[in-house]
Amino acid sequence: MSALDGSPPAAGGLEPHILFGLCGLSLALLVLNVFLVTRLCRRGSSSVDIDWCQSLEAVEVSVPLPKGRVSHDVKCEIMPTRFSLAIRGEKPEPYLSGTLFRPINVDESHWQLWPVGAAEGEPRSIKVSMAKAKPSRWPTLFAAGAASVVETQEKKKDR
pLDDT tens digits for 103-137? Predict the structure, then answer.
């Protein structure tokens, strides 16, 4: 019975205003989660533009592909604790390299040009997807002081 008017409680024994409040709270939490997933960024200083995001199980790194470069110009080495990316004709060489914050599973990791099937002249990126060896959150992509790129701009997004 409802304490307010003597009518029976709503489904599940919850008052209608409590049920409505819980739905509103759930929606607010969903909106907040979407905001955090799409907007949480960390920025360093400078010229090599790196965008990376993560889930508990994987890390994805995105680096813009310079105009005129194709897949044959990219050399990507994914090792259990290191990652290296070189782009023919781009300095520094390698373009990006370092010891990862934690180990990854090489057999479940790969790279590709994105977007697939882009029109000629359309901006493309190199997307590197790496499966984490153990589920966890990484505060940084590389272990402290382990990145060998002189100037790096890093944007991080949790997903």
Answer: 999 999 999 999 988 888 889 999 999 999 999 99
Dump pLDDT digits (tens) for 39-48: 333 333 345 6
Residue 32 has what DSSP assignment?
H
Phi, psi values for residue 143, rounded to 5°: -60, 155
SS3 labels along 11-46: HHHCCHHHHHHHHHHHHHHHHHHHHHHHHCCCCCCC
The whole model's pTM is what? Answer: 0.64
For 50, other C-beta atoms within 10 Å of its C-beta total 22
Q: Torsion over CA of 107, 111, 117 and 121, rounded to 10 degrees? A: -170
Contact 64, 49 (CB under 8 A): yes
| Cα Rg of the chain, angstroms | 23
